[in-house]
Design goal:
The complex is a heterodimer of chains A (about 120) and B (about 110).
Chain A lengths: L3 E3 L3 E4 L5 E7 L5 E8 L3 E8 L6 E2 L6 E7 L2 E6 L8 E8 L10 E2 L3 E5 L1
Parallel strand pairs in A: 2-11
Antiparallel strand pairs in A: 1-3, 3-8, 4-5, 4-9, 5-6, 7-8, 9-10, 9-11
Chain B lengths: L3 E3 L2 E5 L4 E7 L4 E9 L5 E8 L4 E4 L2 E6 L4 E6 L8 E9 L8 E2 L3 E6 L1
Parallel strand pairs in B: 2-11
Antiparallel strand pairs in B: 1-3, 3-8, 4-5, 4-9, 6-7, 7-8, 9-10, 9-11
Classes of the chains: A mainly beta (about 120), B mainly beta (about 110).
């Protein structure tokens, strides 16, 4: 069974704090993704990575950065948290080009509240 | 740019069929997907269809694809209360880099007993 785990289910941080969200997958997937989910907006891609140390901006990268030092781990960093970053954050992973169906497997999500 | 649109809510009675609709703009889409999100959980892939197919059936689920109108639908037969969830439509294209998917806003399905 594919497993994507996220470090926290719920997180409360203060404005201006540096926040780390960790994601680990156990299927040797090449691709990893960070999304945020907001009501009525669906999933919006923040960053993705298709190899170790590779990263690409998604649709809403402002205010975020990422790190992928190992294949199984993809970290999302909020350099200085703001209240408009209060959201549900979802991590996903998928195989690379050999699986052209690109099915993504999702973690359970981290609900982040910035006060 | 690429865009995927869904209506936000659908309410049905238990035992009825549910039809969730989705439209997309990218004519180079290669795969189209339906994901399900139960309360408090991540997304789970329900089914996907390759763009050269018109229909795919999997037990209670039927996916219909109209490429001319860029319209995708998911029909759930004999809808149960356990089907209450948010359903997301998504697409990928041959110009995809790194397996990126474009998701719709999600349709919240409410099943009343």
């Amino acid at each position: 069974d594919v497993k994507v785990t996220q470090s926290s289910r719920y997180l409360v941080k203060r404005t201006g704090e540096k926040v780390f969200l960790e994601c680990v997958q156990d299927m040797d997937h090449e691709n990893m993704f960070w999304y945020r989910q907001d009501p009525g907006l669906g999933l919006r891609l923040i960053y993705f990575s298709y190899d170790v140390k590779m990263k690409e901006k998604g649709d809403i990268p402002e205010g975020y950065s990422v790190s992928r030092e190992k294949k199984e781990r993809f970290s999302l960093i909020l350099e200085s948290a703001s209240t408009n970053q209060t959201s549900m954050y979802l991590c996903a992973s998928s195989f690379g080009p050999r699986d052209r169906a690109y099915e993504q497997y999702f973690g359970p999500g981290t609900r982040l509240t910035v006060t | 740019g690429e865009d995927v649109e869904q209506s936000l809510f659908l309410s049905v009675r238990e035992g009825d069929s549910s039809v969730i609709n989705c439209t997309y703009t990218d004519s180079s889409s290669t795969y189209l997907y339906w994901y399900k999100q139960e309360p408090g959980a991540g997304l789970q892939l329900l089914t996907y269809i390759f763009s050269n197919m018109d229909m795919k059936q999997d037990q209670r689920l039927t996916v219909l694809l109209n490429k001319k109108d860029k319209h995708l639908s998911l029909r759930i037969a004999d809808t149960q209360t356990g089907d209450s969830a948010i359903y997301f439509c998504a697409e990928s294209t041959i110009y995809n880099q790194g397996g990126k998917l474009i998701f719709g806003q999600g349709t919240e399905l409410s099943v009343k007993p």
